[in-house]
Known about the structure:
By secondary structure, this protein is mainly alpha-helical. It is 63% helix and 10% strand. The protein has a three-stranded antiparallel beta sheet with strand order 1-2-3, with no helix packed on it. The longest helix has 62 residues, at 36-97.
Amino acid sequence: MPRNAEKAITPDFYRYTPNTGRSSYGSTYIHRPDNRRHRRSLLVSDQRGNIARLDRQVAAVEREMAAKREEVRRAELALQGRQQEKVRKREANMERHE
């Protein structure tokens, strides 16, 4: 079983949970669904939960990226303002010395 897996279902319908730092491995028998369509829906509902969790993680990362982009934009504007101020001062000094 891959190291990052949280759980697995074996071909003979046992749910396997790997050991963690707090607990040892475990397995539980899962009642076998009667038909293939129902079996497929079990897998889909589990994937929907994973998809929802991943959607929340992606949304959080996108919000963080948007905040960083705004931070960079503000820093660029501040830098441009400082550069323009230096140019104005330099021009004013040159006018005084002429």
